[in-house]
Amino acid sequence: MHGLGNSYIFLDLFSFSIEESELVDLAKKVSDINTGIGSDGLILIHPSEVAEVGMRIFNKDGSEGKNCGNGLRCVAKYAFENNLVNKSQFVIETRAGNVTAEVFLEEDIVEEVTVDMGQPTLNRQGIPMLGDDETVISEAFEVGHHPLELTAVSMGNPHAVFFVEDIDESPLYDLGPVITNDHRFPEGVNVEFIEMISETEMHFRVWERGSGVTQACGTGACAAVVASILNGYAQKDTEICVHLSGGDLFIKWAADDRVWMRGKAETTTTGTFYWKR
Question: Which of these, 1, 76, 266, 268, is most buried using a 10 Å CB contact count?
Answer without folding.
Answer: 76
